[in-house]
Amino acid sequence: MKKKIYKLIFLLLFLTFNVYCWSEEFTIGKLDEFKAELTKTYQEYLEAGIAREVDLYPIVLARIEMAIELYSDNLYSQEAEEEFEMLQLLTEAAKIQMVAARNYAVNLEVQEEGEAILREINEMREEINKIKQRLANEKAIRIQKELKEKKAEAERRFYKLQNDLINVKRDARGTIISMSDILFDVGKATLSCELKISLAKVAGILLVYRDSRIIIEGHTDNTGSAEFNQILSEDRAYNVKEFLIELGVDENRLSSTGYGFRKPIASNNTKEGRKQNRRVDIIVSDF
Amino acid sequence: MKEKLICFIVLMFLSFNLFCVSSRKLLKQELARNEYQVKVLKKSCERQKLESTLTKKADGLYAEYQELKERNKEKRLHINIDKAFILYRLALSLNDLEQSKKQHERQVESLQLTRKQLEYLKEELKELKLELQK
Lengths: 287, 134
Prior knowledge:
Chain A is α+β, with helices and mostly antiparallel strands.
């Protein structure tokens, strides 16, 4: 019986010793693993040529190495488990720090690439603006030229209308088409057939050259009262305007006014002068 | 001879005491340094509004450390402050990693947009050049 108990005790002691040795070896093996992992991550970090500093790596490595030494010399006892746990966490923290540092380095590369593209974009924008400016200038010159040609053409066509009853001239306000009052019934504002034909020709030209503004002015000589002449001149100008609208000229381009005998172009003392003063002027301006 | 022996023993005793006091002082200094580091890390976590199981655990350990310090129980002081330090560092490292990932996502997105913009501009420039040649 005694022998059996001794045997059992011996076996138990042997097993305990084995477990102890195994656990020690296991811990050292694990620590070696931590060290290897840490060193590998550090190597990768070094290879990436990262400028960002990592402070945990040397501390953790030294601590792991110290722990391996202490475990090997069998000096760890009470706090061994806690230290092992802490080393595990520290290794993790150090690795994460290095991975984060690598991420930031990659981010920096991405940022630099972005900045390079932005520089390229800015250069391209400058070039685009220059080309746009050049195109705009060319367009402006072309439009100006076209307008000039249009204006000359319109004037040419207006001058073609010129006869005994229609006089075409130019002054600072633009092209002035003066129509004699013979084209109206005496003392009335009704448009005669001849005037309507002439106005239709004028309207034809105005419809083609849409950029111009048109002012219709009615004028009389000094025969009769000022009030009568004022109303007559206004009515005649207004009727011409309405007829032009009927013919399709845009209403917004047209305006009419009457001046009575306030703006004579010749002397009212002679028959010839009075004849010249009785007129309707169509002023075509702002091509 | 006897006197010499007594003198030697006294000297040994005194130097041992001196050694103990100085090592205790060194330990205290180290502890203070560790505590300062932990405080800095804790502040850093608070400033970054970091709240996780790790920080909570670290807060608990730090609180426990202060309690032990008040009760003059030095035995576990080192372990507690060390653990708190590690946990705070781990929490901060994790946060850093998270931030780096987010930053990466943002930058990649922004880079893609910039590339698209560049493509559009290239196209526009090409068309304008053609228009200029006409």
